[in-house]
Amino acid sequence: MAIFAKTGVGRVAFPIFPEEREEMRRMIRVTILCLICFASSAHAQTGLRFRISFPPSSSAQPLDGRLLLLLSNNDKSEPRFQITEDLNTQQVFGVDVDGWRPNEWTTIDASAFGYPRRSLADVPAGTYWVQAVLHKYETFHRADGHTVKLPMDRGEGQKWNRAPGNLYSTPVKMTIDPRADRVIEIKLDRVMPPIEPPKDTKFIKHVRIQSQLLTKFWGRPMYIGAAVLLPAGFDEHPEARYPLIVFHDHFTPTFDGFRETPPDPDLKPEYSERFRIEGYNRIVQEYAYQFYKDWTSPDFPRFIIVKIQHANPYYDDSYAVNSANLGPYGDAINYELIPYIEKRFRGIGQGWARFTYGGSTGGWEALATQIFYPEMYNGCFAACPDPIDFRAYTTVNIYEDENAYYMPSYWKRILRPGKRNYLNQIVATVEDMNHMELALGTHGRSGGQWDIWQAVFSPVGPDGYPKPIWDKLTGKIDHEVAQYWREHYDLGYILRRDWAKLGPKLVGKIHIYVGEMDNYFLNNAVYLVEDFLKQTKDPYYAGEVDYEPRAEHCWNGDHTRPNAISRLRYNQMYVPKILERIEKTAPPGADLSSWRY
């Protein structure tokens, strides 16, 4: 290696000896880093920037959390309610704050990471409604020795835009130009209010217990609960003992989809963007009331149906399994909560009389629960389940692909699709969806879908947070983490690996349904699992895998109705199948009569 210097007689080479080469490389790296830092510092001191603070009236104590700046080009709702993965999303930027004091300024400028525009410098000049939100974190001292800061659920189902106690500002309409050297000040002078807990009714009861297993893991009192739907005649038949169904779903404060009164005659019709139906809110009420009428009819089976409430510091539910990052939620649900409910509400309390179903997240949970607790349940009905085989982790093969965001190609740079509509038109890429979460929270703290998958499936990283399956910014996959996922949570792989042991316990219990135009490509993983199930022997799985052409997320097995309607009839669909399974498999002497009044 040599450096060439220009002189009056031409270029002269000055040799650099090997022992000098590494020092020169180090000096070059340091110089480049200094130039980058100088440029960033200079940029941060000029251009558009927002200075945000909160008064002592909002909080007298220093706060930790994620500070979000939100911009919207419309006032259909507050900007905090308009951040989505879809085409109509508005803009968010985020920065972490630690020990942020009252009346202290925090600046958001062009260096803050944003979605869908990465930098404030990329925002088009124009008029926007501007709002700021602080999503508060709490400190957890876990039993594994790690101390982490996370947003505790406060009864809202892990929603940063309406979590009680979060600080926010009133939206202000203003004209902004990212090229202008301007400072805009915002005060977080409002606090999101508490949420009123639901009240019990004749049919719906709400239970909440402190989990000893989760309390030990998290180093503080932790609770799980459920909304319990009791059968008609429960009070009039104290001798009856009932089969129990766990309806896995996202967080819900009560048992939704069950309405004891007719639809509200004064209900203002609302258009459903998802289903392209005017007045869909009234349809929802109509079918909820119809379920009540079916539930109380003379011929409807008398079961207990339970919706688990297990919102946690990472998401609106735990995925109902034991996890290195979330703790032993699977055991807490199945060994603490379910026995408590069965004892309190006269459940039969035996495996032949327990079932589980659900869709999407709930579909994955139903299948996982059946696999991980095979003798505790007598059947699962998994609709549109989240990825049940990680060779098709939506559109990513985490074992063979090198990058989650881009298709493999030497010359091209093709983004992987993440979400599509019913015409197979792409509305979001995998990169889009992950960058939205990265703007909302670092270390997997966004409360979003990809972050909870990572929190549930990953080992704990050195910093105490979930070890990333891929770099959130670039998409580069960590295949060591992928192997951990495979051994612990890849349901398709676990079935293949352990069929000799699991198969005899799962015969006739697995039922999976998915639309072939699932918006999140979840049908791809179902195809792979079906390929294995249909060739099983000794024993044959003897279950069901079914599809509907062109059906979107979340098709659940009903070939006679569109998604918009069938999704409102989970209970009416699966309860008759459960009754048939009970009559076919109940052991001799089982109670098949006390609950058949």
From TrEMBL:
Protein name, entry field: Enterochelin esterase-like enzyme
Residue runs in coiled coils: none
Cross-referenced InterPro entries: AB_hydrolase_fold, Esterase-like, Mycobacterial_A85_antigen
Pfam families, A to Z: Esterase
SUPFAM superfamilies: alpha/beta-Hydrolases (SSF53474)
PANTHER family referenced in this protein's UniProt entry, alphabetically: ENTEROCHELIN ESTERASE-RELATED, IRON(III) ENTEROBACTIN ESTERASE
